[in-house]
């Protein structure tokens, strides 16, 4: 593992200046597209096992990009995320994974990593943009808004494309083995897979019995 500095990170070729959001600045839009608007000191680990440390980072949910601030105060983002193994922002770790909804066409994007092991739990954050609406009879005008939606949970088995977690039965079927042990654990622990901590406990248990 090679460790390099924030200054060296800024010299990488796979970064570019972040584009603005349409014709509107964020000052004109209510809400936020970010998981946390403020930059946090983090690390970027590349697939070539080079770790860049002390980099100011934040996650833009709406554009699904990891952004960083350079020494000039400009906001840039990682251009080729497939070259990145993981990004640590504060205490949160983000990975770039292929995924699909209900076995439809594959997409790719950032997820927050819940746990490590044969089966990873992944958090897919969501923000939608709502355009401004003019005032109508008995209805006030509404400014443009970024609206955060409840997160989706996914699992990735041995780094294969991630699949959305919809219910306990479907998840146990997807995992494929140790069905009885998982069902017994879920009953005993009253597991609800739509709750982050419950899903993480179930996956940690599954990884421990492999």
Task: Reconstruct the topology from this structure.
Elements: E1 2-4, H1 6-9, E2 15-17, E3 40-46, E4 50-60, E5 65-69, E6 75-78, E7 84-89, E8 92-100, E9 107-115, E10 119-130, E11 145-157, E12 162-164, H2 168-175, H3 179-189, H4 196-208
Parallel strand pairs: 1-4, 8-12
Antiparallel strand pairs: 2-6, 3-4, 3-7, 4-5, 5-6, 7-8, 8-9, 9-10, 10-11, 11-12
Helix pairs in contact: 2-3, 3-4
Global geometry? flat
Q: Sheet with the most strands? A: 5 strands, mixed, barrel
- Give start-end ranges of low-pLDDT stretches: none
Strand content: 35-45%
Order of helices and strands: EHEEEEEEEEEEEHHH
The end-to-end span amounts to 28 Å
- Provide the spatial order of strands within the biggest beta sheet: 8-9-10-11-12
Could you estimate the helical fraction of the residues in percent? 10-25%
How many beta-strand runs?
Answer: 12
How many separate helices? 4
């Amino acid at each position: 593992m090679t460790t390099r500095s924030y200054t060296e990170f800024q010299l990488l070729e796979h970064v570019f200046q972040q584009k603005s959001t349409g014709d509107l600045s964020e000052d004109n839009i209510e809400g936020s597209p970010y998981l946390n608007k403020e930059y946090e000191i983090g690390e970027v680990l590349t697939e070539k096992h080079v770790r860049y440390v002390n980099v100011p980072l934040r996650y833009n949910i709406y554009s699904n990009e990891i952004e960083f601030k350079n020494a000039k105060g400009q906001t840039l983002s990682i251009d080729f995320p497939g070259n990145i193994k993981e990004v640590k922002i504060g205490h949160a770790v983000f990975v770039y994974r292929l995924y699909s909804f209900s076995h439809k066409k594959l997409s790719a994007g950032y997820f927050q990593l819940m746990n490590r092991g044969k089966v990873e739990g992944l958090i897919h954050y969501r923000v939608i943009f709502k355009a401004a609406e003019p005032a109508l009879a008995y209805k006030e005008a509404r400014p443009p808004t970024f609206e955060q939606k409840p997160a989706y949970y996914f699992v990735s088995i041995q780094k294969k494309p991630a699949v959305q977690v919809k219910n306990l039965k479907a998840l146990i079927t997807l995992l494929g083995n140790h069905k009885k042990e998982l069902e017994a654990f879920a009953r005993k622990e009253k597991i609800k897979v739509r709750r982050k901590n419950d899903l993480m406990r179930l996956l940690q248990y599954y990884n421990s019995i492999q």
